[in-house]
Amino acid sequence: MNMNMNKKELPGKNIEDVQKLNQVTVLQCIRQNEQICRRQVADMVGLTPGTVTNIVRDLIASGYVVETGYLSGKKGRRAVGLAINRRGFHVLGVRLSRSSIVCRVFNPKAEVILAKTAVIEDFEDAERVLRSMLDLMEEVVEESGVRSSLQAIGVITPGPINFKEGKITHLHGNVHWRDVPIRSLIQDHFGIPTILEHDANAAALAEVLFGEAREASSVLYIAVGRGIGAGLVLDGEVYRGYMGTAGQIGHLSVNLSGPPCECGGTGCLTNYASSRAFLKQMRQELGSDVSLEDLVTLAREGHPVVLEGVKQAAIYTGAAAAGAVNLVNPAVVVFGDEMTEFGSLWFDTAKETLLSRLAPEIRANTKVRLSTFGQEAFLLGTGAIALEYVWQNPIVTPNAVS
Ligand SMILES: [Zn+2]
Question: In CATH, what is the architecture of 213-371?
Protein backbone atom coordinates (compact mmCIF):
# COMPACT_ATOMS: atom_id res chain seq x y z
CA MET A 1 0.00 0.00 0.00
CA ASN A 2 1.22 3.48 -0.86
CA MET A 3 1.82 5.28 2.42
CA ASN A 4 2.78 8.65 0.94
CA MET A 5 0.76 11.61 2.12
CA ASN A 6 -2.29 12.24 -0.01
CA LYS A 7 -1.64 15.28 -2.17
CA LYS A 8 -4.41 17.81 -2.20
CA GLU A 9 -5.72 18.56 -5.65
CA LEU A 10 -5.05 22.09 -6.83
CA PRO A 11 -8.16 24.09 -7.67
CA GLY A 12 -7.27 25.38 -11.21
CA LYS A 13 -10.10 25.12 -13.77
CA ASN A 14 -9.78 25.17 -17.56
CA ILE A 15 -12.65 26.20 -19.83
CA GLU A 16 -13.43 22.50 -20.55
CA ASP A 17 -13.67 21.86 -16.78
CA VAL A 18 -16.13 24.74 -16.37
CA GLN A 19 -18.23 23.40 -19.26
CA LYS A 20 -18.26 19.92 -17.69
CA LEU A 21 -19.12 21.36 -14.27
CA ASN A 22 -22.12 23.22 -15.76
CA GLN A 23 -23.31 20.07 -17.56
CA VAL A 24 -23.08 18.08 -14.31
CA THR A 25 -24.95 20.82 -12.41
CA VAL A 26 -27.78 21.05 -14.96
CA LEU A 27 -28.07 17.26 -15.07
CA GLN A 28 -28.23 17.14 -11.26
CA CYS A 29 -30.98 19.76 -11.22
CA ILE A 30 -33.03 17.80 -13.78
CA ARG A 31 -32.65 14.43 -11.99
CA GLN A 32 -33.64 15.94 -8.66
CA ASN A 33 -36.98 17.02 -10.14
CA GLU A 34 -39.52 14.71 -11.71
CA GLN A 35 -40.18 17.30 -14.39
CA ILE A 36 -38.76 20.79 -14.83
CA CYS A 37 -38.53 23.43 -17.58
CA ARG A 38 -35.43 25.20 -18.89
CA ARG A 39 -36.36 28.51 -17.24
CA GLN A 40 -36.69 26.84 -13.81
CA VAL A 41 -33.33 25.11 -14.30
CA ALA A 42 -31.71 28.46 -15.11
CA ASP A 43 -33.21 30.05 -11.97
CA MET A 44 -32.16 27.16 -9.76
CA VAL A 45 -28.55 26.75 -10.92
CA GLY A 46 -27.82 30.43 -11.59
CA LEU A 47 -26.91 30.16 -15.30
CA THR A 48 -28.29 32.32 -18.14
CA PRO A 49 -31.27 30.84 -20.05
CA GLY A 50 -29.12 30.75 -23.21
CA THR A 51 -26.40 28.68 -21.53
CA VAL A 52 -28.99 26.28 -20.10
CA THR A 53 -30.60 25.89 -23.55
CA ASN A 54 -27.21 24.97 -25.05
CA ILE A 55 -26.38 22.50 -22.31
CA VAL A 56 -29.83 20.90 -22.44
CA ARG A 57 -29.52 20.50 -26.21
CA ASP A 58 -26.26 18.56 -25.69
CA LEU A 59 -27.73 16.48 -22.87
CA ILE A 60 -30.69 15.54 -25.07
CA ALA A 61 -28.39 14.71 -28.01
CA SER A 62 -26.28 12.51 -25.70
CA GLY A 63 -29.33 10.59 -24.46
CA TYR A 64 -29.39 11.75 -20.82
CA VAL A 65 -32.44 14.00 -20.97
CA VAL A 66 -35.80 13.90 -22.79
CA GLU A 67 -38.53 16.45 -23.38
CA THR A 68 -41.81 15.45 -21.75
CA GLY A 69 -44.26 17.79 -23.50
CA TYR A 70 -45.79 21.07 -22.35
CA LEU A 71 -46.04 21.67 -18.62
CA SER A 72 -49.60 22.43 -17.53
CA GLY A 73 -50.75 25.34 -15.41
CA LYS A 74 -48.24 27.87 -16.73
CA LYS A 75 -49.30 31.37 -17.62
CA GLY A 76 -48.12 33.00 -20.84
CA ARG A 77 -45.65 31.09 -22.98
CA ARG A 78 -46.01 27.40 -22.44
CA ALA A 79 -42.86 25.69 -21.19
CA VAL A 80 -41.55 22.31 -22.30
CA GLY A 81 -40.86 19.84 -19.48
CA LEU A 82 -37.51 18.08 -19.13
CA ALA A 83 -36.85 14.75 -17.40
CA ILE A 84 -34.15 12.10 -17.14
CA ASN A 85 -34.26 9.66 -20.06
CA ARG A 86 -34.90 6.31 -18.41
CA ARG A 87 -33.73 4.48 -21.55
CA GLY A 88 -30.64 6.67 -22.05
CA PHE A 89 -27.99 4.33 -20.69
CA HIS A 90 -27.45 1.43 -18.30
CA VAL A 91 -25.15 0.53 -15.44
CA LEU A 92 -24.17 -2.84 -14.06
CA GLY A 93 -24.10 -3.51 -10.32
CA VAL A 94 -22.26 -6.44 -8.74
CA ARG A 95 -22.28 -7.54 -5.14
CA LEU A 96 -19.66 -10.06 -4.14
CA SER A 97 -20.19 -11.57 -0.70
CA ARG A 98 -18.72 -14.67 0.96
CA SER A 99 -21.75 -16.74 -0.01
CA SER A 100 -22.95 -15.37 -3.36
CA ILE A 101 -22.46 -13.13 -6.38
CA VAL A 102 -25.39 -10.93 -7.43
CA CYS A 103 -25.40 -9.01 -10.74
CA ARG A 104 -28.01 -6.47 -11.74
CA VAL A 105 -28.55 -4.20 -14.72
CA PHE A 106 -30.10 -0.84 -13.78
CA ASN A 107 -31.58 1.97 -15.85
CA PRO A 108 -30.94 5.66 -14.93
CA LYS A 109 -33.91 5.57 -12.51
CA ALA A 110 -32.23 2.69 -10.60
CA GLU A 111 -34.91 0.29 -11.83
CA VAL A 112 -33.69 -3.28 -12.27
CA ILE A 113 -33.70 -4.52 -15.88
CA LEU A 114 -32.22 -7.96 -15.21
CA ALA A 115 -30.80 -9.71 -12.13
CA LYS A 116 -28.92 -12.97 -11.62
CA THR A 117 -27.36 -14.71 -8.65
CA ALA A 118 -24.66 -17.36 -8.36
CA VAL A 119 -23.96 -19.28 -5.17
CA ILE A 120 -20.31 -19.52 -4.05
CA GLU A 121 -19.30 -23.01 -2.95
CA ASP A 122 -15.76 -22.31 -1.79
CA PHE A 123 -14.99 -18.64 -1.13
CA GLU A 124 -11.36 -19.41 -0.28
CA ASP A 125 -10.68 -20.34 -3.94
CA ALA A 126 -10.35 -16.66 -4.97
CA GLU A 127 -9.35 -17.36 -8.57
CA ARG A 128 -12.43 -19.48 -9.20
CA VAL A 129 -14.75 -17.01 -7.47
CA LEU A 130 -13.44 -14.15 -9.65
CA ARG A 131 -13.86 -16.23 -12.79
CA SER A 132 -17.49 -17.07 -11.88
CA MET A 133 -18.09 -13.38 -11.18
CA LEU A 134 -16.89 -12.34 -14.67
CA ASP A 135 -18.91 -15.18 -16.24
CA LEU A 136 -22.09 -14.08 -14.47
CA MET A 137 -21.51 -10.44 -15.45
CA GLU A 138 -21.03 -11.49 -19.10
CA GLU A 139 -24.23 -13.52 -18.95
CA VAL A 140 -26.28 -10.62 -17.55
CA VAL A 141 -24.88 -8.08 -20.02
CA GLU A 142 -25.47 -10.42 -22.97
CA GLU A 143 -29.01 -11.42 -21.99
CA SER A 144 -30.17 -7.89 -21.22
CA GLY A 145 -28.69 -6.59 -24.48
CA VAL A 146 -27.20 -3.48 -22.88
CA ARG A 147 -23.55 -3.88 -23.89
CA SER A 148 -23.51 -0.81 -26.13
CA SER A 149 -25.35 1.40 -23.60
CA LEU A 150 -23.37 0.32 -20.52
CA GLN A 151 -21.62 3.36 -18.99
CA ALA A 152 -20.35 2.22 -15.58
CA ILE A 153 -19.97 -0.82 -13.35
CA GLY A 154 -20.36 -0.59 -9.57
CA VAL A 155 -18.85 -3.38 -7.47
CA ILE A 156 -19.18 -3.90 -3.74
CA THR A 157 -17.19 -6.45 -1.81
CA PRO A 158 -16.47 -7.20 1.82
CA GLY A 159 -13.71 -4.86 3.02
CA PRO A 160 -11.30 -3.43 3.77
CA ILE A 161 -10.59 -2.21 0.25
CA ASN A 162 -8.11 0.25 -1.20
CA PHE A 163 -10.41 2.61 -3.11
CA LYS A 164 -7.62 4.42 -5.00
CA GLU A 165 -5.99 1.25 -6.30
CA GLY A 166 -9.29 -0.62 -6.63
CA LYS A 167 -8.06 -3.57 -4.59
CA ILE A 168 -9.42 -5.77 -1.85
CA THR A 169 -6.51 -5.39 0.58
CA HIS A 170 -7.35 -8.39 2.76
CA LEU A 171 -10.29 -10.27 4.20
CA HIS A 172 -10.16 -11.52 7.77
CA GLY A 173 -9.75 -15.28 7.80
CA ASN A 174 -9.14 -15.66 4.03
CA VAL A 175 -5.46 -15.95 3.03
CA HIS A 176 -6.13 -15.99 -0.74
CA TRP A 177 -7.92 -12.64 -0.69
CA ARG A 178 -4.90 -10.35 -0.33
CA ASP A 179 -4.25 -7.42 -2.68
CA VAL A 180 -6.81 -8.60 -5.23
CA PRO A 181 -6.95 -5.97 -8.05
CA ILE A 182 -10.65 -6.50 -8.64
CA ARG A 183 -11.35 -3.11 -10.28
CA SER A 184 -8.73 -3.44 -13.04
CA LEU A 185 -9.76 -7.06 -13.59
CA ILE A 186 -13.32 -5.96 -14.44
CA GLN A 187 -12.36 -2.73 -16.18
CA ASP A 188 -9.89 -4.51 -18.48
CA HIS A 189 -12.42 -7.22 -19.27
CA PHE A 190 -15.36 -4.94 -20.16
CA GLY A 191 -13.58 -1.69 -21.08
CA ILE A 192 -16.08 0.20 -18.91
CA PRO A 193 -15.26 2.53 -15.95
CA THR A 194 -15.57 0.45 -12.78
CA ILE A 195 -16.03 1.69 -9.23
CA LEU A 196 -15.14 -0.49 -6.26
CA GLU A 197 -16.70 0.41 -2.93
CA HIS A 198 -17.18 -1.27 0.41
CA ASP A 199 -20.73 -2.32 1.15
CA ALA A 200 -21.63 0.15 3.93
CA ASN A 201 -20.54 3.17 1.82
CA ALA A 202 -22.61 1.94 -1.13
CA ALA A 203 -25.64 1.42 1.13
CA ALA A 204 -25.16 4.93 2.58
CA LEU A 205 -25.16 6.38 -0.95
CA ALA A 206 -28.31 4.38 -1.80
CA GLU A 207 -30.04 5.92 1.26
CA VAL A 208 -28.99 9.41 0.13
CA LEU A 209 -30.03 8.92 -3.50
CA PHE A 210 -33.23 6.89 -3.08
CA GLY A 211 -34.06 6.26 0.57
CA GLU A 212 -34.45 7.46 4.14
CA ALA A 213 -31.79 10.17 3.93
CA ARG A 214 -32.86 11.65 0.61
CA GLU A 215 -32.52 15.34 1.28
CA ALA A 216 -29.62 15.10 3.74
CA SER A 217 -26.04 16.00 2.86
CA SER A 218 -24.39 14.31 5.86
CA VAL A 219 -25.42 10.76 6.61
CA LEU A 220 -24.11 7.97 8.81
CA TYR A 221 -25.33 4.53 7.69
CA ILE A 222 -24.67 1.72 10.15
CA ALA A 223 -24.86 -1.84 8.82
CA VAL A 224 -25.42 -4.23 11.71
CA GLY A 225 -24.99 -7.63 10.09
CA ARG A 226 -22.47 -10.46 10.46
CA GLY A 227 -19.97 -7.67 10.98
CA ILE A 228 -20.72 -4.05 11.85
CA GLY A 229 -19.58 -1.31 9.49
CA ALA A 230 -20.53 2.29 8.84
CA GLY A 231 -20.83 4.21 5.59
CA LEU A 232 -20.32 7.94 5.68
CA VAL A 233 -21.61 10.54 3.25
CA LEU A 234 -20.30 13.92 4.39
CA ASP A 235 -21.26 17.11 2.57
CA GLY A 236 -22.70 15.00 -0.24
CA GLU A 237 -19.59 12.87 -0.81
CA VAL A 238 -18.60 9.42 0.39
CA TYR A 239 -15.90 9.74 3.05
CA ARG A 240 -13.29 7.00 3.00
CA GLY A 241 -10.44 8.25 5.19
CA TYR A 242 -6.71 8.31 4.50
CA MET A 243 -6.32 4.61 3.62
CA GLY A 244 -9.95 4.01 2.66
CA THR A 245 -10.76 2.13 5.85
CA ALA A 246 -12.99 4.74 7.53
CA GLY A 247 -16.23 3.54 9.10
CA GLN A 248 -15.04 0.50 11.05
CA ILE A 249 -17.45 1.22 13.87
CA GLY A 250 -17.55 -2.51 14.67
CA HIS A 251 -14.08 -2.12 16.11
CA LEU A 252 -14.95 0.65 18.55
CA SER A 253 -14.36 -0.77 22.01
CA VAL A 254 -17.48 -0.98 24.17
CA ASN A 255 -15.66 -2.83 26.97
CA LEU A 256 -11.98 -2.13 27.63
CA SER A 257 -11.59 -5.36 29.59
CA GLY A 258 -13.54 -7.40 27.05
CA PRO A 259 -12.25 -10.33 24.96
CA PRO A 260 -9.49 -9.75 22.38
CA CYS A 261 -10.64 -9.11 18.79
CA GLU A 262 -8.99 -10.15 15.50
CA CYS A 263 -8.26 -6.44 14.84
CA GLY A 264 -5.90 -6.30 17.82
CA GLY A 265 -8.28 -4.43 20.11
CA THR A 266 -10.34 -5.69 23.03
CA GLY A 267 -14.08 -5.62 23.69
CA CYS A 268 -14.98 -4.51 20.13
CA LEU A 269 -18.64 -3.74 19.36
CA THR A 270 -18.83 -6.44 16.69
CA ASN A 271 -18.17 -9.13 19.33
CA TYR A 272 -21.22 -7.94 21.32
CA ALA A 273 -23.77 -6.72 18.83
CA SER A 274 -23.27 -8.21 15.34
CA SER A 275 -25.77 -10.81 14.15
CA ARG A 276 -22.93 -13.33 14.29
CA ALA A 277 -22.16 -12.56 17.96
CA PHE A 278 -25.86 -12.47 18.84
CA LEU A 279 -26.47 -15.84 17.14
CA LYS A 280 -23.45 -17.36 18.92
CA GLN A 281 -24.76 -16.19 22.29
CA MET A 282 -28.31 -17.40 21.62
CA ARG A 283 -27.01 -20.80 20.45
CA GLN A 284 -25.23 -21.21 23.78
CA GLU A 285 -28.53 -20.62 25.56
CA LEU A 286 -31.10 -22.19 23.23
CA GLY A 287 -29.27 -24.91 21.32
CA SER A 288 -26.82 -25.03 18.42
CA ASP A 289 -29.39 -25.49 15.66
CA VAL A 290 -31.25 -22.20 16.17
CA SER A 291 -31.10 -19.80 13.18
CA LEU A 292 -31.48 -16.05 12.96
CA GLU A 293 -34.95 -16.47 11.36
CA ASP A 294 -35.95 -18.72 14.30
CA LEU A 295 -34.84 -15.98 16.68
CA VAL A 296 -36.90 -13.35 14.84
CA THR A 297 -39.94 -15.62 15.28
CA LEU A 298 -39.14 -16.32 18.95
CA ALA A 299 -38.76 -12.58 19.58
CA ARG A 300 -42.22 -11.97 18.06
CA GLU A 301 -43.63 -14.65 20.36
CA GLY A 302 -42.04 -12.88 23.34
CA HIS A 303 -39.35 -15.41 24.31
CA PRO A 304 -37.70 -13.71 27.34
CA VAL A 305 -34.12 -14.87 26.62
CA VAL A 306 -34.30 -13.64 23.02
CA LEU A 307 -35.96 -10.35 24.02
CA GLU A 308 -33.18 -9.67 26.52
CA GLY A 309 -30.47 -10.64 24.01
CA VAL A 310 -31.85 -8.34 21.29
CA LYS A 311 -32.15 -5.49 23.76
CA GLN A 312 -28.57 -5.86 24.98
CA ALA A 313 -27.23 -6.01 21.41
CA ALA A 314 -29.21 -2.85 20.54
CA ILE A 315 -27.91 -1.00 23.62
CA TYR A 316 -24.28 -1.68 22.66
CA THR A 317 -24.96 -0.56 19.09
CA GLY A 318 -26.75 2.63 20.17
CA ALA A 319 -23.93 3.56 22.57
CA ALA A 320 -21.24 3.11 19.89
CA ALA A 321 -23.39 5.03 17.38
CA ALA A 322 -23.57 7.95 19.83
CA GLY A 323 -19.78 8.09 19.80
CA ALA A 324 -19.79 8.20 16.00
CA VAL A 325 -22.47 10.92 15.94
CA ASN A 326 -20.44 13.06 18.34
CA LEU A 327 -17.44 12.67 16.05
CA VAL A 328 -18.97 13.44 12.63
CA ASN A 329 -22.29 15.23 13.37
CA PRO A 330 -24.50 13.68 10.67
CA ALA A 331 -28.00 15.05 9.97
CA VAL A 332 -29.38 11.52 9.65
CA VAL A 333 -28.35 8.16 11.10
CA VAL A 334 -29.76 5.12 9.26
CA PHE A 335 -29.57 1.61 10.70
CA GLY A 336 -29.66 -1.36 8.32
CA ASP A 337 -28.68 -5.01 7.73
CA GLU A 338 -29.57 -8.24 9.55
CA MET A 339 -30.22 -7.09 13.14
CA THR A 340 -32.86 -4.63 11.93
CA GLU A 341 -35.00 -7.67 11.05
CA PHE A 342 -35.98 -7.61 14.73
CA GLY A 343 -37.88 -4.44 13.83
CA SER A 344 -38.91 -1.94 16.48
CA LEU A 345 -37.78 -4.26 19.30
CA TRP A 346 -34.18 -3.73 18.21
CA PHE A 347 -34.51 -0.30 16.58
CA ASP A 348 -36.37 1.52 19.39
CA THR A 349 -33.77 0.44 21.93
CA ALA A 350 -30.83 1.36 19.69
CA LYS A 351 -32.41 4.74 18.88
CA GLU A 352 -33.27 5.51 22.50
CA THR A 353 -29.76 4.59 23.69
CA LEU A 354 -28.19 6.67 20.93
CA LEU A 355 -30.29 9.78 21.55
CA SER A 356 -30.00 9.56 25.34
CA ARG A 357 -26.23 9.84 24.99
CA LEU A 358 -26.21 13.06 22.96
CA ALA A 359 -26.17 16.64 24.24
CA PRO A 360 -29.70 18.17 24.00
CA GLU A 361 -29.01 20.47 21.01
CA ILE A 362 -27.40 17.62 19.04
CA ARG A 363 -30.20 15.23 20.04
CA ALA A 364 -32.87 17.66 18.83
CA ASN A 365 -31.23 17.96 15.40
CA THR A 366 -30.23 14.37 14.66
CA LYS A 367 -32.73 12.13 12.86
CA VAL A 368 -32.49 8.40 13.49
CA ARG A 369 -34.14 6.10 10.94
CA LEU A 370 -34.54 2.46 10.07
CA SER A 371 -33.46 1.63 6.50
CA THR A 372 -36.45 1.01 4.26
CA PHE A 373 -34.33 -1.21 2.06
CA GLY A 374 -33.03 -3.84 4.52
CA GLN A 375 -30.61 -6.19 2.71
CA GLU A 376 -31.74 -4.55 -0.51
CA ALA A 377 -29.66 -1.45 0.41
CA PHE A 378 -26.44 -3.19 -0.62
CA LEU A 379 -27.80 -4.34 -3.97
CA LEU A 380 -29.28 -0.91 -4.62
CA GLY A 381 -25.89 0.46 -3.52
CA THR A 382 -24.15 -1.27 -6.44
CA GLY A 383 -26.42 0.71 -8.79
CA ALA A 384 -26.05 3.90 -6.74
CA ILE A 385 -22.24 4.05 -6.98
CA ALA A 386 -22.31 3.34 -10.73
CA LEU A 387 -25.09 5.87 -11.42
CA GLU A 388 -23.35 8.49 -9.30
CA TYR A 389 -20.21 7.98 -11.41
CA VAL A 390 -22.19 8.56 -14.62
CA TRP A 391 -23.93 11.67 -13.21
CA GLN A 392 -20.52 13.13 -12.35
CA ASN A 393 -18.89 12.01 -15.62
CA PRO A 394 -21.52 12.15 -18.37
CA ILE A 395 -20.29 11.45 -21.90
CA VAL A 396 -21.50 14.60 -23.63
CA THR A 397 -20.72 15.24 -27.27
CA PRO A 398 -18.86 18.59 -27.38
CA ASN A 399 -21.08 21.30 -28.80
CA ALA A 400 -20.19 23.31 -31.87
CA VAL A 401 -21.63 26.63 -30.65
CA SER A 402 -20.95 27.57 -27.05
ZN1 LIG B 1 -11.91 -5.31 16.74
Answer: 2-Layer Sandwich (3.30)
